[in-house]
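Exercise 4. Each item below gives a protein and its sequence. For each, produce the structure-token representation.

Item: uroporphyrinogen-III C-methyltransferase (Bordetella flabilis).
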Amino acid sequence: MPPVSTCAPHGTGKVWLVGAGPGDPELLTVKAARVLREADVWLVDDLVGPGIHALAAPATRIVKVGKRGGCRSTPQDFILRLMARYARQGRIVARVKGGDPFIFGRGGEELAWLAARGIAAEAVGGLTAGLAVGAALGLPLTHRGLSRGVALVTAHTMDASRPDWRGLAASGLTVVCYMGMRDAAMLARELQEAGFAGRTPVAVVHRVSCPEQRHVVSRIDSMAADIDLSGLSSPAVIVIGEAVTLIDAAAPGASMSRAA
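Answer:
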């Protein structure tokens, strides 16, 4: 495979949407690491692991553009304008995102916005927390005879719409829910009203793959109380389904409680 070049043609700049993975720098792809080392400017999300910053060249300009639910966030319009400004200055810009740019990361929106303005842009995939959680806990998200697939969903949207919980309850899939920590009690009620059994196993995992990773194993009807008791907070993913029963108890980040 020929080496990837981040050099923009004819002195023009370029934007790379880089998936930085769930936090552990060793989970970066080789391509992502190379692009990050060669970029002139980084626009960095809050969820990017601190160890990843070590890849920046000494002269790299690093701009924090955090976007966190429930916290003061950098406006998306401002981030877009920054990307365009630096690219038009002939810079190589890395828009560094936790996880993968195309899984709840606005990667599609940003690529379309840049393309509409004639700015060269390309994406580098990353490992999203909802998939990394499997190896982090010894939790097979799919398992013969137990889970026929996995669905990644978000409990928080711009238009306040909700996932098709009823369809997911009947699907037999392991469900990994992002952004569900804001109101876990409401999420539990919605799941049960949609047909999920209250006893359905749940794992709530904070900071997947990071040194501060912690998790709690529960069930839908008691997960809100267990989250409160454990003190877990965002960022976290909530894994729902029978596959949770296969968590390796010896995996890093041992669970702090188990519902009966």
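Check: The longest helix spans residues 76-88.
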